[in-house]
From TrEMBL:
Protein name, as recorded: Biotin transporter
GO molecular function, one term: biotin transmembrane transporter activity
Pfam hit, one: BioY
PANTHER family: BIOTIN TRANSPORTER BIOY
Source species: Centipeda periodontii DSM 2778
Source species taxonomy: Bacteria, Bacillati, Bacillota, Negativicutes, Selenomonadales
Length: 196
């Protein structure tokens, strides 16, 4: 009996260690992908888009709520301590940038996306809705902070509706396409057994 318990415990412990290692590897991978995504610039007309949003969506889908938010939060923390992983560098002064709200939004979006997609079967439809909810979260945090920082921190006044127009309405189509891409990739990776 004692030998059987030892045998089960030994293999259960090994399985737990493998799972922890897998979590660490995938979280590290997504921290790197989000960082690289900030520097992949795609010019569309007069605007420039990055792949950062795509990778934060995938972090939520593939890692789940807790680990998705943790990976994105670690990325943000790395930037705040001075590692130049943000699109415009890094350091604690980045909190004063008008776009800092988007980074906070990414953390919450990772949690929301991961939590919603796991409420049922991870179909394309559910994954797309999860990504769209994440997009709304990012817009709420990003636009709100952009308006606040522009008007009260850096003294570059901007109207509320102008902020919504430039930071929201004009970004909806490209961000929607990134949501569709993330949902498609997310479902494919789930079928391949890559989700945590």
């Amino acid at each position: 009996m004692i030998k059987q318990i030892y045998f089960i415990d030994k293999y259960a412990w090994r399985y737990l260690n493998i799972m922890k290692l897998r979590e660490i590897i995938l979280c590290g991978l997504f921290i790197a992908l989000v960082a690289v995504g900030a520097f992949v610039r795609i010019p569309v007309g007069t605007d420039v888009y990055t792949l950062q949003f795509l990778f934060t969506l995938l972090a939520g889908l593939m890692l789940g709520a807790r680990l998705g938010a943790l990976a994105i939060g670690t990325y943000v923390l790395m930037g705040l301590v001075g590692i130049p992983v943000f699109a415009s560098g890094g350091g604690p002064g980045y909190v004063l940038q008008p776009t800092f709200g988007y980074l906070v939004g990414f953390i919450v979006q990772g949690w929301v996306t991961g939590a919603f997609v796991r409420m049922g079967a991870p179909t394309f439809r559910r994954a797309l809705i999860a990504c769209l909810l994440g997009m709304v979260v990012v817009y709420v945090f990003g636009i709100s902070y952009f308006y606040f920082a522009s008007n009260y921190i850096i003294d570059a006044p901007i109207g509320f509706w102008v902020a919504i127009w430039y930071c929201g309405v004009l970004q909806v189509v490209p961000d929607f396409l990134l949501c569709v891409a993330a949902a498609y990739i997310g479902v494919r990776t789930q079928k391949a057994g890559l989700w945590l």
